[in-house]
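Researcher: Sequence of Nuclear transport factor 2 family protein follows. Predict its structure.
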Amino acid sequence: MKLLNAVNCAIFAAVLLFTACNTAETTIAEEPKADFTQVIPTLEAITADWNKGDLDKFVTVYDSAATFMLPKGPIGVSEMKGYYQEAFTETGTPTSTLSFDSLEMRPLGNSHALVTGRYILTNQDSTAQSGRYTLVFEHSNEGWKILHDHSN
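Model: Prediction complete. Tokens:
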């Protein structure tokens, strides 16, 4: 009799587990779709910040946990700012003018975007250097923020 009760309990537990696993999926409210038309203007705004020499404002588009890829591997925002200060400024002023071209933006879901393009840094003597980049953006209450920057 005890064995029969144990078997019945095991069967009942299995039925409960099976039922719980096969219930209709609860619908999760889909997050609202972000305004993707604001991604490119966000990049244009930080370009102006760079060209004014406002590196502090330039880095505000990066999420506090963002990563920036260097040949040695990813670094955080504060390290990235130091890298930019050392490589592209003299006495706090940029040594080159920043511009972007070949911009392409592709939505990734409702609140993320992938942006690719080319940056151009034009020096005061009109020589230029350029490279390609990939940015991953996320839309938040603070607007579009860069989560990852892979520039070369």
